Amino acid sequence: MAAIAIYSPKGGVGKTTLAVNLAWAAATLSNRRTLLWDLDPQAASTLLIGPTTGSSDQAQAIFTRDLPPARLVRRTRIDRLDLIAADTSLRSLDRLFHELDKKKRLAKLAGDLGKAYDRILIDCPPGLSETSEQVMRAADLIVVPVNPSPLSTRAFDEAAAHLGRRGYKTPLMPVHSMVDRRRKLHAATLEAHPDWPVIPMASIVETMAVRRLPVGQFAARSASARAFATLWQAIERRLAARR
């Protein structure tokens, strides 16, 4: 099992879009038994592929041992892809982690869930917090979407420096997201980091919220679907190289 965190120090950079489409690629393109774990209280990943029933407000109970993680696993409409949904109880997760004072609580739970899955993708809340640091300890790879702008790049640099100071050794994989190559600023930013994968800005990605499906499920031949697939292949290579 490998755990892949989709994390960003700031919101609005396409984090959830990456998480959902990469989870789909793991399950569909790589035939992996895949779990998408939504830890963002905004629950966008849950909205995109989760069941239509209302929230149970139990997501936080996993961490207090009040509820076994497997009890919250739900099947999605996609073969080999399951979900642990987010809900409003996660709004106080940072405080809970602080009170528990168990630095590897999430890592332990991910390890237990890994007996049933080949890949666990974690959609993290944005920002540097107790939750994000739990994720850093649990993940084998951290994928970081970065908009092609000075502010977003600066936020990534600061997050990378913070993690380095904290002694985390989990590799970061920055990804240029929401890219419009016609914009001079975007083109210049891509030129500065030519080795970073690129996910283009596309209107078809916006329709995910209407269809409640990953792009590859309803537009497999689109440029966006190909970009997500290429990124997933790069992630698999990174994971294989670590073994």
What does this structure look like?
This protein has 243 residues and is α/β, with parallel strands linked by helices. The protein has a single domain, classed as 3-Layer(aba) Sandwich (Rossmann fold), CATH 3.40.50. It has eleven helices and eight strands. It has an eight-stranded mixed β-sheet, with helices on both faces. Helix 4 packs across helix 5. The radius of gyration is 17 Å and the shape is globular. The model has no long low-confidence stretch (mean pLDDT 92).
Give a quick set of tags describing it.
about 240 residues; alpha/beta; Rossmann fold; eight-stranded mixed sheet; 11 helices; about 40% helix; globular
Q: What is the N-to-C order of secondary-structure elements (H for helix, E for strand)?
A: EHEHEEHHEHEHEHEHHHH
Major sheet description? 8 strands, mixed
Strand portion, in percent?
A: 15-25%
Strand order of the largest sheet: 3-4-2-5-1-6-7-8
Strand element count: 8
The percent of residues in helical segments reads: 40-55%
Give the structural class: alpha/beta
CATH architecture designation: 3-Layer(aba) Sandwich
Query: N- to C-terminal separation?
Result: 12 Å
Q: Would you tell me the overall average pLDDT?
A: 92
Report the uncertain regions: none
Number of domains: 1
Q: Figure out the total of helices.
A: 11
Task: Describe the oligomeric state of these chains in a short phrase.
Answer: single chain
CATH class: Alpha Beta
Cα-atom Rg, whole angstroms? 17 Å
CATH topology: Rossmann fold
Any idea what the CATH superfamily is called? P-loop containing nucleotide triphosphate hydrolases
The best one-word shape is globular
